[in-house]
Write a structure and sequence with these properties.
56% of the residues lie in helices and 0% in strands. By secondary structure, it is an all-alpha fold.
């Protein structure tokens, strides 16, 4: 009868260790985020924005036309089954 009690105790200790490890990882990430100055954050955001809005270079044979809208597949209709409530 002692084996099941020991298993539950080990599972509880493992759970506590997991919670503690998760908290340590989150705290480290928060410290790294707070280490940036507002100027650093602003500079990084400007860099990311410039990279996202940059016009890709065209190939020599490309006329510069956009490929057009992307077709959207039609929505599937759900099969409605008759209601079978309890009677």
């Amino acid at each position: 009868m002692r084996a099941p009690k020991r298993v539950w105790k080990l599972l509880g200790l493992a759970g506590l260790a997991g919670v503690a490890a998760t908290g340590a990882v989150l705290a480290r990430g928060e410290r790294q985020r707070r280490a940036y100055t507002p100027e650093d954050v602003r500079a990084r955001l400007h860099e990311r924005h410039a990279a996202a809005t940059a016009v890709p270079e065209q190939e020599p044979g490309d006329e510069g036309e956009s490929p057009g809208p992307v077709p959207v597949p039609p929505r599937r209709r759900r099969l409605r089954l008759p209601f079978r409530g309890r009677r």
